[in-house]
Every structure is written in C-alpha cells, then in structure tokens.
Fold:
Amino acid sequence: MAEHGATAAHPKDYHAAKMGMWLFLFTEILLFGGLFLLYASYRHRFPEAFHAGGQTLDVFLGALNTIVLITSSLTVAMSITALRRGELTRCLWLLGFTIACAGGFMVNKTIEWSAKFHHGLIPGSEHMLGLPQGQSVFYGLYYAMTGLHGVHVVIGATVLAWVMLLIRQGKVTAQDYVVLENAGLYWHIVDLVWIYLFPLFYLIS
Amino acid sequence: MTDKHEAQHEPLSYRFLALVWAGLMALTALTLGAAKVDLGFLNVVAALGIASAKASLVIFFFMHLKYENRLIKGMVLTAFVILAIAIALTFVDVGYRY
Amino acid sequence: MDQTDHQSDDLTTRPFFGPKGSGGPGDKGLGPASWLFSTDHKRIGLLYLGLIGLMFIAALALGLILRLKLMTPGSTLLSPQEYNAMFTLHGVIMVFLVVIPSIPASFGNIFLPLHIGANDVSFPRLNNFSWWLYVTGMVLAITSIFTGSGAPDTGWTFYVPFSERTTTNVSLAVIAVFILGFSSILTGLNFITTVHRLRAPGMTWKKLPLFVWSLYATGWIQVLATPILGITALLIFAERVLHLGLFDAARGGDPLLYQHLFWIYSHPAVYIMILPAMGVISEIIPVFARKPIFGYNMIAFSSLAIAFAGSLVWAHHMFTSGMSDTAVLIFSFLTFVVAIPSAIKVFNWLSTLYQGSISLDPPLLYALGFIFMFSIGGLTGLVLGSAGTDIHVHDTYFVVAHFHYVIFGGTGLGMFAAMHFWFPKVFGRMYDHGRAAWAFWLVILGMNVLYFPMFIMGLQGMPRRYYDYLPQYGPMQMVSTWGSWLLAVGLGLMFWNLYRGSRYGPAATKNPWGGATLEWTLPTPLPHEAFEGDPSAPEPYDFKGVNPDG
Structure:
C-alpha cells in the first residue's frame, strides 16, 4: 500500500507532514478569504470611494514591500536547496536574510501606518468615525487586512528563526528537512496574501 | 517505502529559483504599469489576472506544488474552489442588493 | 478481570486505561501528567470525553433552569438580563464545547486509528495540543461569564449590531470561540492526514468502516469552514476594540455580511455535528442486524456529498433578513438538494434492518432513537428551508424544536449510542442492559414531550428567545417543562448506569456485540499499543464467522 505512512521502521512520515502543513495553509487561505469576501462586497458597493481611497495609499511603499516579500520568498526557497545540498552556512545566511526582509517589511508598514495615523486615520478616532460611508469601510478593511497580514509576517519570521535554531542544533538536516520546507510554505502563504493585497488596495484606483 | 524516494525530487537549482523571482519582478512591474493606464473595469481584471499569475508562480515553484502528487494538487484546488463558491454565492445576495 | 494478561511490563500488552481492579498501568503510570500530556489517541479521546460530559451537564442545567422559568408566564425566577445571559451560555457551551467536538474528538480519536489498523493518529503531539486549546477555550468561555460587566447576552450567534454594542463580556467570549475553532481545525487536519497516510496494508478506501468515512468528510468541513468562523470572531473583537465600522450600517458597513460570514461557517458546522453521529449509526445498525450494511458505497459517498452540498446552503438562515430575493430563491433550492444525501443514509439504514436478525440491545435502541428523532428534525428542516413557509415560522419555537430534534435527538442520541456501543471496549466492563433500556425510553419520551409542543407553539407564532409570553401558550409551555424533567431523569439514570458499569460492572469480553471492525479483534480493555505489526484489513460488515462472545 503506497499510502501507508509512519511505521516503527519509519517513525517520521514525510508525506504526512507535508499534507498536514498544506491543510493548515488552507485554513490560512480561508481565514483571509473571509476578509476578501468583505472586500469584494464592499468594493462592489462603493466603487468610487475605493478608487479614491486607493489613491491616498503610497504606491511606492506598497511596491517596495512587494519586492521585499517576493525576494524573501526567493531566499526561503533557496535555503531549502542549500540545506538539501548540505550547504549549512549558506542556508542559515539565506534564512537570516529572509528574517531581515520581514523586519524591513514591518518597518515600511510602520512608516506607512504612522503617516495614516498622522492624518487622523486612527481606528476608533473621531476622524475615522466621522468619515463618509465608503471611505470608512475602505480604511476599516485596509487596517483589518494589512493588520492581520502583518501579524502573519511576524509569526512567519518567528517560525523561521526557530527553524534556524533547529538547523544549528542539527535537528533539521539535509536528510530530514521537512520542518524547513513547511516553515517555507508558511512564509510563501504570507507572500501570496500580499500579492493580492497590493493591487487590491494600492493599484485598483 | 517507495513513495519516500518519489518525494525527494532533486532540489530546485538556485538558477531556476532566480528565474522564477525574475518573472515575479517582471509581473510586478507590469501590474504597476497597467495601473497607470485607464482601462475602466479592465483595470480590475488586469490587476487580479496578473496577481493570479504571480500567485501561480509562487504556488507551483516556490511552494513546489508542481512536484507534489495529484492528491495534494486536488486538495489545493478544493480549498480554492470552496473559497470561490463562498464569494460567488455571497454575490447572489450583494450583487442584487447594492 | 483477567489480570494476568495485563501484568506484563511490556508496553504493547498493557491497557491504556486501568479501571479500578484491572491493575493495569498505562504508558507512564496513571498520574495526572501521564494523562494531561499524553500523546496516546485513546487517552486524549477520554480526556475529551470527560470534559465534554462535564460541559454537557453544565449546559443541560442551564437549559433546565430556562425551561423552569418558562413554565409560567410573567417575571419569575430570573431577571430578563439573567435570562438573556443564560440562553446565550446554554447555546455557546452546547454548540462550541459539547456538540462540535462531541463524537469526533472523543470516540473519533479513540477509534478512527483502530478502525484503519493504525496505532495512533498522524500527529499525536498536535492531538494533545488541540485538547489543550479546547481547555483554554473552555476556561476563557467560563471566565467570560464571571468577569467584565456581565455574561454575554447576544445569543450564541453573536449577531451585529448588538454584539458590537452590548457592554457585556462578548470580547472574551469570541476569543474563546476563536480558540475552540482552532482546536476543532487541528482535530480535522489530523484525521484527514491519518486516513490518507496510516491505513494498514490492504485497508483500501472501500474497506474503511463508514464511521471513518464520516469523520473524513467531517475533517474537511472542519478544515475549510472553521477559519471563516475564526475571522468572524476576530472581526467582532476588532469591532468592539478598534471600531472599524465594517458591519456598522451608519458607517457604510453591512450587518448582513456579518450574517453571511457567520453562517458560511455555522451552517457547515451543523454537518460537523451530525455527520460523525451518522457514522456511528452506520456502525451500530449492521452489527445488531447481523447483516452487511445496505448500500455501502452510497452511504460513504453521501457523507462527502453532505460535506460539499452543506457548504452551499448557509443563507437559508437569512430568508427574512432582507437579503436579495434572488439569493432567497437560490439558497432555498440548494437547501432541498442537501436533503437528498441525508435521506439516502436513512433509507440505507432501514434497508439494512429489513429482514435482519435484530437484537434490540441498548446501542441499537439509541441508534433507532436517532433515526426517529433525526427524521422528524430533518423533515421539519424542509419546512424551514422552503422560503415561503420559513417566513411564517422564522425565529419561532418551530426553529428551536427543529434543531433540538436534529442536534439533541440526532447528534446527542448518536453520542449516547456510541457510548453504549464502545463502552465495554473502552472501560473493560459492561453496564446494566435493563437500566440502559429504561433510561433510553425515558430520554426519548422526555425529548418528545419537551420539544414537540414547541413545534405547535412555533406554528402559532411563539417567538424564540422571548423572556415572557402570552397566556395562550401557557399550557404547552407547562407540558414542555414537564418534558424537560422526564429527560433529566432519563439522562441521570443513563449516566449513573454507565458510571456504575465502569466501576462495578462485570468484565467485558473481547467482542460482546459481534462487531467485524478491527477494534473488536483487540483485547479488552484496549492495550497501549493496539497492533503489533500491520493487521490484515477485514471486510467491516461481513459477519460470517464473527459472533458475539458468550
């Protein structure tokens, strides 16, 4: 039976670990999916306000963060190749670079959000509560979606840092690399969500 | 454990991964350019189309889906189909109400 | 008890669970830590069973108090605010802490691996973690009652705008719901992977017991629908803390989109509740009819069909909400479609019983109770799914009666059936059959006296969740409350009988019912390591040469 997995002789089932991770990623996709559902509905309801709202966002910062995340996705993918070829130092450097990218992304995000806060767009503030209907929903979604995404960036970076530790301790190796692969999958999902968030908020205007 | 070997396909080369990255960068440039041109409704289609092309590159190559077995591929498809159904069926309400 | 069998120090022959007198320690003795941090699927199943039972009794007590208040009209026993808080808690605890985890987390955990010839689930540590998440969610949910400015009073659905504005402790409650959802997801994820990866050699998909099929379908709903509940709960929290205005009509938000998100999860969730119970019934009926299950393929397929079609019908909870007429029409139609696979199962069970050599033991009694109650609940569901009639009975006692027939009469009796069916295998002892039958008749009578008048009151227009009512409903409210007492007595007798059985009952044999699935080939009580090497995969419903012991 080809599908029979872990036995006493093979305590670790590579396929099960991968399948479990993919199933977990589906839950992430659907978690964000609920927000995308709201976005689609409200954009349908307030096309002009979403158009105007998009123009107030900083395309340069958005594009920069897109490049940062895509590049970090590349380095995670390369780190798996490095680990499997036994190039441990290179693998750790690539992962370190990825985490640095996550940091850079969060710095950009902070700059962007601060600028919005500076304009009085603080969730719950008088100014936000007094916005016209469509704009209120646009910024509400902007904070909800980029905020939840930011949380995932932080979680993803933390997971990668933990895997770096495991690699250094020799618990994740060239032969037994599924933990790194799964951490990488998680990081790619973070990138994937941003790939949609970027045009939906910054470009559709 | 025959499947154990099947799973361990050769690691993707740095060169190939860099090519995928270059493709993603090119598509990012393309979507930035497309946003500058006023195409009306087609702007949305173009933005989402390009985003989906980028997403496919990430899923199939960075996430190795292309090299997974059909079971995993089918599962991924199921997840996206369910999400699409949820959004589509919500639109039979909001599409006729707003 | 046959003690000599369990004296060996060899891990593989020790029972995982030592009832008093068996002398059998588990993997690391019987201390609390060996249970709380156990990665043994059987122990985790029992941990769940214990807490689910506890929560069931708590929410049952709330329900009895509510019924007592409603026995007479006017302001008695509870203040309106207490009443609101109490029906909210009854709902939240019953739905999120009892019914959703009920069968999968307890008996699913114990028997899914054994049914497929595996010694554990794919991710045992994750399994333990998901129990701890359940504990965390439970503690937070209970904390939300006693902290902040009062227990949540929104109803278990947390509908906006009230849930955003009420000053009661909704924020903590929705975080509890989020965490409980996470726990449910991890169980589903574990089961799907286990079914794909850990089947014994020769255990093909067509040889899987139907209980496994139903848990597999349930696992998919848990993985794909629960995240939507997660985001919905998070959004309520965000609205209360950050005031984003996403559902605030005054600020351009749409409260109906909250209802959409909520029901995109919560409708499939009723199939998380009922599918595992259907799986249990599919196991029990052939064993006590001594006949192969009728229509194996159709029952297996209908589980998947229910899981898929169940995700297409959520807005039938919103026919009177003011959503578009097009949506009302489409969702009403789709609702009728999902009735088909459920009916397929019922007809197949009845065909299995037909000309069977039926022995009316307690597990079969509860299973037949399930079919009876589920049929009433299911058919009245069509009255609600049909847009025209729903307008009349929406948000009345009719709805309350309908879902109590399906969820309590269905999932509840399915759970009790599972308890009576697998009790000897889990606890190594047997309960008293006569008392179990008495308890069953009291329970089924109590349920019908309790809930059937609600159908009539609902048709007459009695709205649900109301604190007070017009005098015309007085007599039937009274009868309904009497029913709740009958039910309570029946449940008390049932639990007492099971408790006594687990402590003092006669030692159970290996296969007291003559089941053909793999767990009945194992010693009683179950050893820590179930299988040495790979078992050969039996035909799960071929009773040739398989007989009840004794």
Remarks:
- The mean pLDDT of chain C is 92.
- Residues 143 and 324 of chain C are 40 Å apart (CA to CA).
